[in-house]
């Protein structure tokens, strides 16, 4: 069972917060501790955490998110920011927190790093910060200058933490994607690419010296594409795949996760870093925007994956070695890059705080929905759709307005394989109009579209396609934050810097092979 500590300093800090926020966290924390500690027959070895990205038009307020994490009994969380308003939201919760710095100037020199540590020191203990991620996918980008500056920033950050007395508790590291390995057919063949190896060795030496983990970010379908494996079953760790990989020492792999994890274990061992802890800082399954990105597949993936993590049984390469893994993510993020349409649909929750599918975040494999967010207020049940009376002779204008709506709002559910991909042309336009209307909090002027649209109260949803009604603007607390560069690479999916068109073409080919 994960060790849960509630420091007296949490209580002192949280007493200075508003009584409303304190009550929410206090009662949720009591529920979290009572349920967790009372289940003495449940022994969770691997830690299941959750990521919270905020690249969306409608955001749950931070206190609600912390409450959700506590009530779902998730002991660790990651935010893609170091904003003080978010750190404040986690104060007193007892949740172990990972934060991230994208703006390297904040820690680009030893002096800057010391200043940054001082500016966040109040929250390190109060908000239970345990890791600081620096930058994003620096070895994948292939920029030697960027690699050097990011590693310098990492070193500066850890040195500043050590000097301030936080080094034993807070570890700085850099998350990396699977793609930085050479092409392989078996995990034991894995090696890092040669062209960045010197910088990589420097990075590994820093984290080893400070007992920090190596953090792997894994997109299962992405990894399948890289490995050129077309058996859909190999994506799911439920031992139903007909594709089996055998390796040295009798190792057998029937799923992409254990394959990728052990590939990294082998690659690190070949460089002399076999003792480094590997944390899976991101793993997820999207529910829309692409063939195969749907609720049944998300449920199937997590139904097998989370008990694997909780079991602590490890992998063939590292048997009995518990794995910490962070589910991505709490909510959808409709401002993520459109080049990866499914990248806007990683969320377990809709923007209104309702769960999309069943998932047991404790890793027990129960057939349950996660807790629904409390206190979310939705806008009135109104939708913006085409005014069919105004269509005659306005085809060109309609096409332009449709494109404009999709440029400003999220139309990825209408992409091939998405939940709304079967709409008629007229319904497609109505969907786009409504998405923009909702993202602008139902402002009347946003349902004009040069006289081609109107507001209705009859729900235009059809089949699997939901025309949403979003949450009220009042729930957008802490939207702008304190100016931290949260969106340095986009604060949600933060997809790697592969050319978007190339990625989509390759993944389209893979899905075609799988489903035909």
UniProtKB/TrEMBL annotation:
GO terms for molecular function: hydrolase activity, acting on glycosyl bonds. InterPro entries: GH (IPR017853), Glyco_hydro_17 (IPR000490), Glyco_hydro_17_plant (IPR044965), X8 (IPR012946). Keywords: Disulfide bond, Glycosidase, Hydrolase, Signal. Residues 382-467 form the X8 domain. It holds the Pfam family Glyco_hydro_17. Signal peptide: none annotated. Transmembrane segments: none annotated. It comes from the Eukaryota. PANTHER family: GLUCAN ENDO-1,3-BETA-GLUCOSIDASE BG1-RELATED-RELATED. Belongs to the glycosyl hydrolase 17 family. This is X8 domain-containing protein.
